Amino acid sequence: MQVAGWEHVFKLDPDKTLSDETLEAICESGTDALVIGGSSGVTYDNTVDLLARVRRYEVPCALELSTPEAAVPGFDLYLVPLVLNTERGAWITGRQAEGVLGYGPLIPWEATLAEGYIILNAEAEAARVTEAQTELDEERTLAYVDVADRLMRLPIIYLEYSGRFGDMERVRRARRRLAQGRLFYGGGIADAEQAAAAALAADTVVVGNALYADWRTALHTVDAVKRVKREGKLV
Ligand code: 1GP
């Protein structure tokens, strides 16, 4: 399974709680995939638990591996983030190399993709943990996009504003700049309107926190994204 057809994705955090009812509604919402991952508190056990609960449903499920300890078998796809705008090499290739050392023969390479993260919200937990240099102007953001897309040829370029709705103009420019990768946008999408705006700008729209704040409203983001992608404009 690859990500080419993903327009809308829900990101689930194994360290947070969802009732069975909510999880069922999420899995049957029509989203293209679930991505399981988080910036802190993710363990092997809570990842296995969440995988077992979503496996009852048909929705494809990917694991975003921010820490090798949470590498759980049985996902459809594995996404490995490389944080590009940090000076700490451990978050670009160091931890990934440690993961390969530890799990080498077990890694399903054919189902593993790298994501080039460009983190743009200084308040985001991921920015704090990775010491990302989030104060990028647009020109510099696009330079990182070129590094990810044209130089490293990563399949996913991820503009991450986690916790805050981002600059859609910048996201749109980033997508138009791409030569081969797919532009993921995530951050602060709370409702259908913001999801629609993000769908106009990015290839793939990721909704996370809203599921834990107001999941019924979050579910409306699926239709909003699908409609924009179908019509090619806000409707
Ligand atoms: C987080 O990009 C995702 O990695 C989604 O962000 O949680 O703010 O929706 P939110």
Write a concise synopsis of the structure shown.
The chain is of the alpha/beta class. Helices cover 38% and strands 18% of the residues. The protein has one domain (8-231): Alpha-Beta Barrel (TIM Barrel), CATH 3.20.20.390.
Tell me about this structure:
The chain is an alpha/beta fold and 235 residues long. The chain has a single domain, classed as TIM Barrel, CATH 3.20.20.390. Strands 1-2-3-4-5-6-7-8 form an eight-stranded parallel beta barrel, surrounded by five helices. Helix 1 links the parallel strand 1 and strand 2. It is globular. The two termini are 30 Å apart. SN-glycerol-1-phosphate binds next to strand 8.
List the helices and strands and how they pair.
Blueprint (H helix, E strand, L loop, with lengths): L7 E5 L7 H8 L5 E4 L7 H11 L6 E4 L12 E7 L10 H10 L8 E8 L5 H6 L7 H14 L4 E5 L7 H10 L4 E5 L5 H10 L2 E4 L2 H4 L1 H17 L4
Helix pairs in contact: 5-6, 6-7, 7-9
The structure holds SN-glycerol-1-phosphate.
The CATH topology is given as TIM Barrel
Number of helices: 9
How many distinct domains? 1
Strand order of the largest sheet: 1-2-3-4-5-6-7-8
Shape: globular
According to DSSP, the number of beta strands is 8
* Ligand set: SN-glycerol-1-phosphate
- CATH homology superfamily name: FMN-linked oxidoreductases
